[in-house]
Amino acid sequence: MRFTKISLSNRFPLILLLLILNLSLGCGKVVKGPEPTIPEANAGEDQTVFVDYQCQLDGSLSTGNLAVYLWRIKTLPSGAPSPTITSSDAPKAYFTPTKLGTYEFELELSNVLGISTDEVKITIVPFYAPSIEAGSCGICSHLQSHDGETDEDLDRNAQMISEIGAEFVRFDFDWKDIEPEDDKFSYAKYENIIAKLDQINLKVLGILDYGNTWSDPTTGDIKEINRFADYALNTVKHFKSDVKFWQIWNEPNNETFWANPSAENYTKLLKAAYAAIKQADPDAVAILGGLVGNGRDEVYLYGRLFAKANFLPDIYTKGGKDYFDVASIHPYNFATDINSTASIEAAINDAQTIMSNNGDGGKELWITELGPLYFPQEPNFLTTEVYTETEVADWLNLIYTDLRAKCSKLFWYEFRDYPGEFSVFNLEPNWEGLVKSDYTTKEAYAVYKNMLK
After folding, report:
1. Phi, psi of 437 (to 5 degrees)
2. Which of 202, 269, 283, 294 could form a disulfide bond with 350, CB atoms 3.0-4.6 angstroms apart?
3. Which InterPro entries match (predicted)?
């Protein structure tokens, strides 16, 4: 990259105007505001990205108070049309390359003290699909929250998950934890988790999810979606050497996790987040947010919209086909017969049919959550029907035996029982784990362990 500073002489009229304004307004009480500082533009590192996917230009390392940002195109690949630069007056801007070759951009930073410019080169290459590791068995665990509340809890969960032979562990990389303020990232908690999982060779499926106190990307507003994509880009880049599997949101067709579920708004987020993941790590595998049910049928549970109708077909209609490497469902509402997997297999077939009808038959389909939601071992305020540990353990063995050939990976939900009371005020089931909240193992724990020997 090249860095230049330009003299102040061509900014003299601007300086004079500001001095006049300052004198004319100076008759009242003087309130001292921020002082300008000399601008220094930093257009970021040169990058290589895929053609036809949005690319972020990042000038956030620039310095200079009260400075104006301006991104502009300097050179294009031969024959390339000039792309539109979105947010060209902000530290982070976006464009979508449509031609192979090298694009060069200039960032200008200016204020009353001067002008600074810097250039960045973006090399555009053909898209390639990532390789997907073998292995079919995963576990969901809330290592970022109650399963990792203390170092002792984290160590115990990680070690016990490793002992049963699970190949993957799935958990949230919660946006509000990682970026509590705009452009202020904190990874210490997740670095600690990853370090412990690396020691026992557990692969991670990280979920990039949920809104923030200062941003809601579910509304479809492109500015907020790009903020989410920025979090995704920085997070994937930060953990590039350790995490290769990323899921874009959790259950976006479920109103518990996405207010007023909208396939159109989710597809907008999917496109931006997928491009961000690939910009950060071209070899990363991006997984569709696990859709409750089969991706097509409407489902209500406990009086809430558990799955909006036609969500997966609508993702394709809105152009989402090329923005996930793996599809994913959570067919809970089809897992109601403890003696059969026929309904679950039908849900898998339904989702795969939708994929095939949209030219996506070659993609893998994963079940990233499935557990005994409908098989409580104790009565609760909703039902008096209960199931024994043996019945649940036998069902676990049944689903892994029957479904292994139907879907590429299956993640059991969850490893440890939720350590809270299930009630009308807290609809978080507390019976789905392989172990109880006090880490006492259930029969299903031994079955899972023996199944993977």
Report:
1. -60, -25
2. 294
3. GH, Glycosyl_Hydrolase_39, Ig-like_fold, PKD_dom_sf
